Sequence to fold (420 residues):
Amino acid sequence: MKRTRYTKFTGDLADEFSLEDLMQQLSDYLLDSGFQDPLSRFQELQGEQSLDNLREALRQALEAGDFDQDLRNKLEDLAGDPEKIEQLIDQLIQRMQQQDYIRIDDPADPSRTSTTPGQTGSGESSARFEVRDKALDFLGYKTLQDLLGSLGRASAGRHDTMHQATGVETNGSIRPYEFGDTMNLDANATLAAALATQAENSEGQGVTWPIEVDYKHLHVQQSDYQSSCATVVMLDCSHSMILYGEDRFTPAKRVAMALSHLIRTQYPGDTLSVVLFHDSAEEVPVSQIARVKVGPHYTNTREGLRLSRSILNRQRKEMKQIVMITDGKPSALTLPDGRIYKNAFGLDPLVLSETLEEVSRCRRANIMINTFMLATDPGLVQFVQRVSAMCRGKAYFTTPQTLGNYLMMDFMSRKMKTVH
Fold:
């Protein structure tokens, strides 16, 4: 008789690692904004997404040993065998590629001549990788989870208002049916109205069957009317966001990614756009937020507001808002001929007047501007105070550590506001 012998399956060590945990440990490297943090273990990699740098980042993550005790013990057993460590890193990279967390580009032709004088193609032959949307979405989810956990919230719901409609999710209140209402009938109230009418007409003879239900007897249950919101996140990516010994841009990117995940999963009727502003301004796809680094030095707030207003004007939403994250006062202006006028000293009258005129246009378009300041520069505070007064918005002084809490609390509190 044929026999089958079963043995215990012992897979590769790489299969025991959670790729989600690895991606979270590599997040500081993958979301690098150009800030050279002397305390970061990935400082020497400078955010360059080459395959060699990915291998080094994985090596440092394995050395840090932020895993469960069983995995730490197995990694300690491999510590004296560099060849097996390299083999493990290769297997982890292969898993990340197979599960669509990264995509590895083919290396350039090694025979190609380098553009750098005195060097051959060796400088251009290093393979590179690209972080896929699946990995970025996971990092956004983890950021959102951390933020909501710190706020003590488990669910965001939707943007409720004080208006009422005859939808599906009832709130307990009932009113007579009107033409055009959703036929969300309340059977008890409808029958009670029909019985009351019959009792009035029966002259004390009691209820007779069948009960005649007329148009005037119909009652419907009401639900909270839920609005939709269009949001533009304006990210200041001027060079000051990574100066002065602090990285302000990476936390801003993390919050934008978390907000994107929140809107997509909890507010399906909402829209989110991202505008970067520096010497000028441009819209970037939400999926590209994590890949963005800081740009030129000046702050063209007016151009960022103009582009954001243009985006929101195309959205047919009842609520429109701009969330501006900045650490500097307006210091640049796009002139009618396309040239960039720059003045970083104080509040330039021309820059200020043109920027506030754009704020007025946002107000006339019923666009609210909420500003999150990452600095206390007097010029910035003075400008933001005027913006808030003109546009019915709010101003928050935050730090990179508290930015996410303030922004999420403000965004989710709006679901209790009335929209007029």
In short: The radius of gyration is 29 Å. The first helix runs from residue 19 to 25.
